Amino acid sequence: MPLPKAPKSNNQTWKISERKAKRSGLLKAIHEVNGDVYTGEWNDDKRDGKGTCKYKNGSSYDGDWKGGVRDGYGVYSVIRNGRKENSYVGHWVNDKKEGKGTYFYKNGDRYEGEWFEGKRSGWGRNQFQNGAVYEGEWLDDKEHGLGILFMENGNRYEGYWKEGQKHGDGKQFFIDKGQLLKGVWVEGSMKCGEFVDLGRNEAPEPTQFPIPELTLVDPGELLEKWRKDLLEEAEE
Fold it and tell me: CB–CB of 207/177 below 8 Å?
């Protein structure tokens, strides 16, 4: 009596069906369970390539995707005061702002520069709503390193920063008074330095009297000693 033949495996059929079920290529609007609506390219059931996603809260992203997340160049927009406005224009890596980009803050501030893992890091320029401008180095979303702060009244600070505060050697230019303060800052506070007149005769609001000259034999040596002691103390 002949033995019955074993049924053919349908594993291959399942693989073909699974492959067909996965979204790939350019597709029209796809409504996700969470309320997102995506129109664009897919690969292996993930957003991949060029596409636009409109989120449930009214915001949207138009740009590059990779492996299901924002990656490449794109524009993220939000709804503010009932109208659509750009929030971030620039590069992304693994769903976070990274590379060069411009961010428009809700309060009117604007940052143009470098990003890393979603934070301002590298070289950048932040224009504040009140008219002040900081241009220089950033780390973890704070001014850090060498930078210049231009105040709204025309005065400026040039020097070093640490975690968002003036820290280290710096120069404070008082253009309105025609004076210059150069010295050492620690955690945002001026600790030691030298005041001199600079363009006092051309200043719009000059001081009544010029700054008298120092009578110390060697003021530079004394300031350097104070500078060294203060910075060493701050690092302890």
Answer: yes
DSSP string, 64-96: EEETTEEEEEEEEEEEETTEEEEEEEEEEETTE
The string of pLDDT tens digits covering residues 111-139 is 999 999 999 999 999 999 999 999 999 99
Mean pLDDT of 78-100: 96
Sign of CA dihedral 222, 224, 226, 229: negative
Residue with tokens 């979603």: 118
Distances (CA, A) of 110 to 7, 35, 116, 124, 146: 68, 30, 17, 10, 20
Query: Each residue of 50-81: pLDDT tens digit?
Result: 999 999 999 999 999 999 999 999 999 999 99
Pair type for strands 142-150 and 156-162? antiparallel
Q: Which H helix or E strand runs over 137?
A: strand 133-139
User: In what helix (H) or strand (E) does residue 182 lie, and over which residues does it extend?
Assistant: strand 179-186
Supply the DSSP string of 158-192, one letter for each residue.
EEEEETTEEEEEEEEEETTTTEEEEEEEETTEEEE
> Rounded to an integer, what distance in angstroms lies between the CA atom of residue 182 and that of residue 174?
11
Report how far residue 131's alpha carbon sits from residue 200's, in angstroms, rounded to the nearest whole number: 24
* Residue found by looking up tokens 């990779």 in the block: 66
Q: What backbone phi and psi angles, to 5 degrees, belong to 16?
A: -65, -40
